[in-house]
Amino acid sequence: MTLHKITLAGALLFTLAGCNSIASSTNTLTDEQIKSQSAGALGYSPSDLSIVSRRTEGTNTYVALKTNDNQQFNCIINGGNLLTLGMTNPPSCAKKGEQIKVAPFGG
Questions:
Q1: Rounded to two decimals, what is the model's pTM?
Q2: What are the boundaries of the signal sequence (predicted)?
Q3: 59 or 65: which carries more pLDDT confidence?
Q4: What percent of the chain has pLDDT over 70?
Q5: Can you give 64-78 as a three-state secondary structure string?
Q6: Which domains does the chain have, with CATH numbers?
Q7: For a Cys-Cys bond, which of 3, 60, 63, 79 suits 84, CB 3.0-4.6 Å?
Q8: How far apart are CA 95 and CA 62, in angstroms?
């Protein structure tokens, strides 16, 4: 690999790291938005869900939810930050302990 390619690769990684930091720090998803979007994906009413935990890393918000009938789910919501102009993709969810299937870009 040439020095030029190494420099470009380093610059790209630095830029991506900066974007992730901006996305994380500008996340505007409220608990109510998370419950509303996740409820639609899970087939529950938002009032049937409670948030057990949530964390944001880069452009993704990871949330653990519990339903009023004691079902537990984990969801990933992509977006909801400055870089996505507040828009989000539909949540990807799975029952607790199961792998979340995330749709590929454009799919």
A1: 0.73
A2: 1-23
A3: 65
A4: 73
A5: EEEECCCCEEEEEEE
A6: 3-95 (3.10.450)
A7: 79
A8: 13
